[in-house]
Specification:
The chain has 248 residues and is of the alpha/beta class. Bound molecules: NADP nicotinamide-adenine-dinucleotide phosphate. NADP nicotinamide-adenine-dinucleotide phosphate (NAP) binds next to helix 1.
């Protein structure tokens, strides 16, 4: 059947695949014919994702992505890939006056240095096939939304968006495309950490023109567009998926 978004014949590595957006992305990619390599830290959650993938030939690899030895072990188990979704990340909310260097270091390690280093090593070790597609999962926090308490998180995602553009330019001669998606608030465990009460979330949703938070699949479908051949002339761009939030 004609489908320009098909991922048939592609092998795709998804980080952060044990939960939320990464999990939804892996599942939806498998439904479109891709072979998945899913990675995360929590064995039970990663097993669950593996069990939800359609088709066979998928691989799961546990890895703490801020640990160089575990990243090396991950690379050692990989063959060539056609797609890379850099989704692993975490949130952190502090008023600016509490944004000390150690907190910047902690969040930059996970949200910025880990994905950038993984991409660098994959390129260096020639694990990304010609015409492959890389998708950074960034945030509107790095792309025009300046919510109170988000100074560190927003900085990690803004840095990611910037590096994405440099990589897009430098890797274009290998025909590797590099883009990012910038979600608004999405219903995952990242936002269910008690930092925002249910009542605050209800009020916050009212600030979204489309009057709801995103679901993981809303983001997965944007990522799939960027992984598929439908976007083969798209590189160096950030796709905002936010129910219209940054229009406000
Ligand atoms: N939810 C939102 O509102 C929202 C909005 C904009 C952008 N984002 C971005 O979307 C991405 C996914 O977030 P999510 O909402 O899906 O959150 P989530 O449900 O909490 O999932 C986070 C994933 O990242 C993995 N992870 C975290 N730290 C890691 C590390 N050091 N090494 C390896 N894996 C690690 C987790 O693995 P374990 O299961 O092993 O812990 C999990 O699979 C993040 O980059 C986040 O910044 C989220």
């Amino acid at each position: 059947m004609y489908n320009p978004f098909s991922l048939e014949g592609k092998t795709i590595l998804v980080t952060g695949a044990s939960s939320g957006i990464g999990q939804a992305t892996a599942i939806e990619c498998s439904k479109l014919g891709a072979k998945l390599i899913v990675t995360g830290r929590n064995a039970e959650r990663l097993d669950k994702t593996r069990g939800l993938l359609q088709g066979d030939g998928h691989q799961q690899i546990l890895a703490e992505l801020t640990d160089a030895a575990q990243v090396q072990a991950l690379l050692d188990q990989l063959h060539e890939i056609d797609g890379l979704v850099l989704c692993a990340g975490k949130g952190m909310t502090f008023p600016f006056v509490f944004c000390t260097r150690d907190k910047f270091d902690d969040l930059f390690d996970v949200n910025y240095f880990a994905p950038v280093e993984l991409l660098r090593l994959l390129v260096k070790k020639k694990k990304l096939r010609k015409s492959s597609s890389v998708v950074f999962v960034s945030s509107i926090g790095g792309n025009g939304s300046y919510n109170y308490g988000n100074a560190i998180y927003g900085a990690t995602k803004a840095a990611m968006n910037s590096t994405m553009k440099f990589c897009a330019k430098e890797l274009a001669d290998k025909r590797i495309r590099v883009n990012s998606v910038c979600p608004g608030m999405v219903n995952t465990k990242l936002i269910q950490n008690g930092a925002i009460s249910d009542e605050q979330q209800r009020l916050d949703m009212e600030r979204y023109p489309l009057k709801r938070y995103g679901e993981p699949n809303d983001i997965a479908y944007g990522i799939i567009y960027l992984l598929s051949n439908a976007s083969s002339w798209v590189t160096g761009t950030s796709l905002t998926i936010d129910g219209g939030f940054i229009l406000k």
